Fold:
Amino acid sequence: MKATLQIKRGAQGEPQHVETFDVPFEPGQSILDGLRAVRRDTDPTLAFRFACINANACKECMMLIDGKVDYACTVRLKEGVTTLAPLPKKTLVRDLVTEIAPPDERLHGKS
Ligand code: FES
Structure:
């Protein structure tokens, strides 16, 4: 099976553009698995972030998936095109990476 990932790319302050990658997948694999395949096999410069892989615990893999905020490690790859973009309300770092609050800010909040 093959999935197509259309990924919005670019670094902070640069114009963003969309790049398309085809990745092979087995049913049950996640978007994050697809992104890791792209980075391993096609483009090692693709930027995205993850820590827990699929526990939905670290929240570092949050991005826009088909226009909705979701976790790349829990959404499944599908046949056909999936669009991926960085979170729109966070400061862009590069590609799918945005500035997210460090863990202790998340725990204590900012009041
Ligand atoms: S990688 Fe941790 S929530 Fe997705």
